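Sample A.
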Amino acid sequence: MPTAGTLSRARRVATRIGLRLIPVGAILASTALIATPAHAELVTQIRSWKTGRCLDSNFKGEVYTQPCNAPHTNRHQYWIFTGGHLKNDATGRCLDSNGDGRLYTLPCQWPNTWQDWEAQQGRARDVAIIQNLRTGLVLDSNEGGGAYTHRRNGGFYQDWKLGF
């Protein structure tokens, strides 16, 4: 269980990298912070609260959800929150979206506001809503493994848990 000092440090790091941390007990318990001299990163799986499937990607830039693998066994299911971007740990590509709701990865670009994301408080303390700051649309999914963005509608498919 994280200590109060760990949580304070995590909040400071998250603020610095553009991620708004929400009351986080269970979220931080299953994520890792990696600090380097130049910056800090939050590395985590992103799991649909409704389906239990993890956000995944491949080298072709396709984004979808798959059954979650045990922690640290599939780098395609790990995402790095860095500078407001979500970078896939395996491909090194950043989560990107367009106004039509398509979700994909492209090489990371700074600045590229289509690749800027923010985690916001969801309906419970360990639930996040992940919003694309350029489009205002939020990360959404379905039972078939689809991942896309959609306007915020209060549906459970838009609830995500950071970590396994």
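Sample B.
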Amino acid sequence: MFPILASSLCRSRTRLLAYGSIWSRQIENLAPADQKRDRKAYHQINYNVYPHIPLRQIDSISGWMPPLDSPPPLPFRINRSKTNNIPVYSEIRKGRTLHLTIIRKIEGDLHAVKEGLKRLLGEDVQIQINEVNSQIFIKGKHVKPITKWLLLLGF
């Protein structure tokens, strides 16, 4: 009784079958062949979508900006991640008592990045350089100001 009631209430061309307590859906091919072709042509309409791409200004909701076409003339370069974001991350260590900000994917002079970060965040911030992995560790939560600074530099 329930499968008949469910199939009569269903608006699409599907029939619900009950197998114990599991419901499964079986598609019925009730339309003639030429109606199927028209439906396929209807669903294959292509729409041209041109998304709004912010041009070097922070006007998007997420704050994402495309990188400059040519890298800025600085002694270092910061490559973007696979998802085209700035590689600045926050991490919590030592029993949730140590907050770190990590900058990854740095090419070039790491000490120039450190000097720029000291001017941005202040002289009292502890900054550690890992030259093997080309990463910089900053003590504290500084993801938003560092990301904004790197976007304004053109990375």
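B remarks: The chain has a mean pLDDT of 75. Residues 7 and 15 are 5 Å apart (CA to CA).
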